[in-house]
Amino acid sequence: MEQIMTKPKVLISDKMDPNAARIFEERGCDVDVITGETPEQLIARIGEYDGLAIRSSTTVTDEILAAATNLKVIGRAGIGVDNVDIPKASARGVVVMNTPFGNSITTAEHAIAMLLALARQIPEANTRTQAGEWPKKDFMGVEVTGKTLGLIGAGNIGAIVASRAQGLRMKVIAYDPFLTPDRAVELGVEKVDLGMLVQRADFITLHTPLTDETRNILNRERLEQCKPGVRIVNCARGGLIDELALKDLLDSDHIAGAALDVFAKEPPAADHPLFGTPGFICTPHLGASTTEAQVNVALQVAEQMADYLVDGGVTNALNVPSLSAEEAPRLRPYIALGEKLGSLVGQLEGPDVNSLTIEVEGAAAELNMKPITAAVLAGMMRSWSDSINMVNAPILAKERGLDVREVRHGREGNYHTLLRVTATTGTRKREVAGSLFGGSEMRLVEIAGTRIETDLDGHMIYVVNEDAPGFIGRLGSTLGEAGVNIGNFHLGRRLPDRHRGGDAVLLLTLDQRPTPEVLDAICELEGVKKVKALSF
Ligand SMILES: NC(=O)C1=CN([C@@H]2O[C@H](COP(=O)(O)OP(=O)(O)OC[C@H]3O[C@@H](n4cnc5c(N)ncnc54)[C@H](O)[C@@H]3O)[C@@H](O)[C@H]2O)C=CC1
Ligand SMILES: O=C(O)C(=O)COP(=O)(O)O
């Protein structure tokens, strides 16, 4: 996908294992590690970077993205990406990727640690014992063996928590609308709805992302429905539980204990209502904080971001399809060809295009089409408006209601490999086709039903004229008189019969951009039906 020719520059804006910076350097990126900045400081700095590597302390807002004029990729060394405005990043053409597995064991272990800490009130017992007391009679815990654990969210972390809890001889029930019955059997958990979960669980642990659907999933009403004496662990995201309701229900002893690693606002205010509440314990978003997990996510995020910035490979992106670093070099010439063909139809037809068909044939039919389609769309839409790239082009195309079709032909054609783009407006249909010669050199091979063979490069003029003797001479003189030198000249007659006296198509490469006067003069030549200046 996007490949940059100069050395890519990456900013690491959150505390990250030093392996990340090492990998960036080894992969040929310049890297700065500047943590703890205010949003204003980040806005002032971000414009110079191609990549931004973060954890949860940097919030990437639209204001930051607006200032990030060179940014191509945001890499989250971790899982949750609720601190990144992904729709805005996509609209601005920035890839957002995370490391979906690197810290999952560590986070699951933290949830289990919190669960046991709640069951045996370890934090408070520790504090008071170290303060010189011997408060043995004040602490009566509960066993977890035989108790029911309710999982809200049974994805990667939830599944690990389930297996660890089963090791502790707990019965695990799970609420997750995307959990299939087969997967539930595989995990050894009973799938239940949320109402059932809160009624039955002795312990509840949350492992969902924070989304519009999950925000306040444990709201006051749900918390009130919980089994009296329930203990709740949240090592997922603040915002999943109503913190004030939690405080009230801890105070009334309806909830026996709550352990939060995450808060709705981080860091929480020093006078947060839950602080000091009996039965409440917390950690400062430490779920992912083990040496092992931090090395994992640092290595992975740096490799993934470097793959994208250096080779165009895309892994674990949340807003574009994946493209392996091995696939990227094979696709690169097709991406260049797709962009040029897209640009050609975009310049010829303008923004009235309402449907686009992209066909691949021969060697191209073996490839992943998504990046090629994205390249055609980017090439086409960039000819009408700025700041469009392969990341935001498919989204913008969808927003404008463009009908995009992909067709993969198994048939043998005239070319070893072929990419055909057909753009339709309300009144016209424009078809162009291109191939790669020698595996990588792009050629336009068909336009307006005419076989032709040219590169699309620099300043060009497209002319359709009645095929009659003397025309080429007159055209050459018109350009010569205007002091415009012709670099290349390609001529073809319209298919299918290519008969004399029909229309001819000319594509000329010029050494300079033709002025409007030159284009007018060509328009006035006898037999000219269409003239269009193009630039690539
Ligand atoms: N405290 C910490 O330091 C860490 C926190 N996390 C948090 O943990 C979350 C979960 O991580 P993973 O398990 O790796 O993600 P995952 O994507 O593998 O699993 C999330 C699960 O939530 C389920 N889900 C989605 N919407 C739901 C809903 N409305 N109700 C119930 N379930 C729903 C999904 O189906 C999925 O199975 C992350 O999104 C992140 O916010 C992750 C790592 C560290
Ligand atoms: O990976 C996640 O989702 C986490 O919440 C970990 O956050 P952190 O990288 O420790 O700031």
UniProtKB/TrEMBL annotation:
It comes from the Bacteria. GO terms for biological process: L-serine biosynthetic process. It catalyses: (2R)-3-phosphoglycerate + NAD(+) = 3-phosphooxypyruvate + NADH + H(+); (R)-2-hydroxyglutarate + NAD(+) = 2-oxoglutarate + NADH + H(+). Pathway: Amino-acid biosynthesis; L-serine biosynthesis; L-serine from 3-phospho-D-glycerate: step 1/3. One of its GO terms (molecular function) is NAD binding. Residues 460-536 form the ACT domain. Its EC number is 1.1.1.95. The keyword Cell division does not apply. Transmembrane segments: none annotated. Keywords: Amino-acid biosynthesis, NAD, Oxidoreductase, Serine biosynthesis. Catalyzes the reversible oxidation of 3-phospho-D-glycerate to 3-phosphonooxypyruvate, the first step of the phosphorylated L-serine biosynthesis pathway. Also catalyzes the reversible oxidation of 2-hydroxyglutarate to 2-oxoglutarate. NCBIfam families: PGDH. PANTHER family: D-ISOMER SPECIFIC 2-HYDROXYACID DEHYDROGENASE FAMILY PROTEIN (AFU_ORTHOLOGUE AFUA_6G10090). Belongs to the D-isomer specific 2-hydroxyacid dehydrogenase family. This is D-3-phosphoglycerate dehydrogenase. It comes from Aurantiacibacter atlanticus.
